[in-house]
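Two proteins follow. First one:
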Amino acid sequence: MKQASQAPTGAFVAASWVALLAGVVTYLAGLWDARMQLNEKGYYFTLLMYGLFSAVSLQKSVRDRLEGIAVSGLYFSLCWASIALVLLLLAVGLWNAELTTPEKGFYAMAFVLSLFAAVTIQKNVRDLAAAGGRQPPAADDGA
């Protein structure tokens, strides 16, 4: 089922990129300045990268299914499991971290902002491609 898509406005596209940059840069600046061991910083950095990938992959899978593009049930389930896992790992990491409550909130909010913005940017890419009559480049992921 192909749905008609309206192109997002330039302001919305710009706001999405600003939100992603704000979330990622803020999160990374917090890590850079944090008094943590390097392995802890690596853990939180890896969670951010895994979270961004998982969020974009889930958004793409949901959108593909809505547009009638085949997505295997296994891949779709892995996308959902990845999002759940990254959020659980962040929650457990922050719960056990020797950080103040405001610091924990800082990391959580920057993380969530980054994921939300990544999903929005992926949606914008698809909407702009559909509105322009072009298809986004197909990923050869077997899904």
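Second one, unrelated to the first:
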Amino acid sequence: MSNENNQGYVYILTNPSFREDWVKIGKSSRPVDVRSKELDNTAVPLPFEIYATLKTAKYDKVEKQIHKQIDRLTDLRIRQNREFFNIAPSVALDIMRDIADLLEDAELAVYVEGKPVVSSSKDEDKKINAANEDKKRKKVKPAFKFHMVGLNVGDTIIFDATHLPVKIATDDKIEYEGRLWSLSAFTAEFLPEEMQNTSGAYQGPKYFSYGGKTMQQMRLEKEG
């Protein structure tokens, strides 16, 4: 019998700033919510979200096996020797489930609204995934527009990463050196290398400010 004190976790993490088919798959000897908070840093605009966890004494072997299974499909690693994979989280969960079914001490949990739901079958996984997707669709906000925060064409905002002032050219574009940019495209192009994330996708309103507040903060205040 495995000693429960030696158990650890294999986790699947997603991130709202990544593409939908990018995941991080790793391991931790401590609860995964602690690990996901440690990964929250300036290189990643938004916090990681726990998608699923597998608790087992064989967590080290399980993590290696999941990585190996994904590598067999094709070269899906975002960068070699990293824990990021270009794979849908539901596919990663299927692989995790197949391995969990072979372990006596495995406890698989899929997360709904940030809370773990213990899952006992693939059918249950599918129901949980469907519920998550449904909630995600309902939470989708309209794309950012400057009028949402009371700003107009001609107003100047600041690209905080380099303290660069830029002018608003349209309701959703800024002008810089004679070219129009969306906030996210400008961020991807001009964000200093040390602040970039692995996905290359950014939520532009987080990186621009007016009067000391980011566009994201201003939008949240306006929307209550």
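SUMMARY FIELD: The chain has six helices and twelve strands. The radius of gyration is 21 Å.
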